[in-house]
C-alpha cells in the first residue's frame, strides 16, 4: 500500500483543518483524538492522518479514531514522536506500508491503526473508567472549594454595552453536534431573536449559519479574525491574576475588548455573564456537560461547570442533543391538510363568481339535454 500527497502539519488539529485541503496528508500531535477533531478532519477528506501521539491511549474511550476509520481515512501513529519535527509543511510525503518518507527521504515508521486495535484499546479504556471517574470526581470537588467565588458572587463582572435584562441569551460552543442542534433550534432563533454569544470558535459556528454574534467570549485561541471584527463586543477570558494569553491578538488588531478574570472555562463565564446581567433564559448549544467531554478537552475536572450550573439553575436550557429529541418531518396528514386548506377558498370563490355561475348553469343545461335525449332514444 502506497499513499502519497502534500503534508499539512500543526500541533493543534483545530488550526490544521483551517488550511487542510482534500486529498492531502494531515500531520498532527494529538493524543486521544476526540470526536469533534475527528469529524473536522473527516470533512476535509485527507488521504491519511499521521499522528505523533497515541490516537487512542486506552485512558478513556475516545471516539475519534473509530470515526476516522469508518470514513475510510488511514491512520498511522508514529513510533518516535520526534519524527514530527522532521516533517515540513507543503513537503511531499510518501507512506509505504508503515514507513514514512519525506521528499523520498526515510524519516521513520509508525503503527497503522486497525478496527481490531481500536476495539482492544476501547475495551481497556472501559475497564479503566472507574479509576478515571474516581480521580475526576476528587479533582472536581477539590477545585470546587477553590472556585466557590463563582457562586458566592465575588467575581468582578465586566460592564457591557448590550442590555440582556429579561432577554433570551443563546450561548454557542463549537462542541459535539453543535451543527445539528443549531439546525434544530433555528425557528427559535428566528422568532425569539435571542442575544447571541459565541464562545471562541462558537462565534464562527454562528457565522456558519448566517448569524452575527453579538458577543464573543473566550481566550481567543480558536475564533477567526473575521468573527472578531464583525461581533459587537469582545470579552477576553483572563486568569484570576489578570493574565490573558489571547489579549495580544486583540490588541494587535486594535479591537475594543472587556477583560473577565475568572477561574473555569470560557463557556462557564459566558453563562455567568448572561445570568449576572439579568437574562431571562439562557440556552446553551454544544457545551461540555459530562466527564468524557472534559477528558476530550484535556481537563481533569468540571468544578466550574458544576458550580455555574448550580447557580444559574432553572434559567438554563441545555439544547445539546435536541436534534435527537425532535426532528422536523412532513407527515402525509400535514400535506393533506395543507392541500384541503388551500382548496377551500378556491372552491368558495369559484361558487360565488359570475363566470363560475354561468359555467355551472351551462353544465346543468347540457346534462338535462343529454338526459332527455337518452329518454327519447330508449
UniProtKB/TrEMBL annotation:
The keyword Cytoplasm does not apply. Keywords: ATP-binding, Kinase, Membrane, Nucleotide-binding, Transferase, Transmembrane, Transmembrane helix. It comes from the Bacteria. InterPro entries: Put_SteA-like (IPR047795), SteA-like_C (IPR022215), TPK_catalytic_sf (IPR036759). Pfam families: SteA-like_C. Residues 320-370 form the SteA-like C-terminal domain. One of its GO terms (molecular function) is thiamine diphosphokinase activity. This is Uncharacterized membrane-anchored protein.
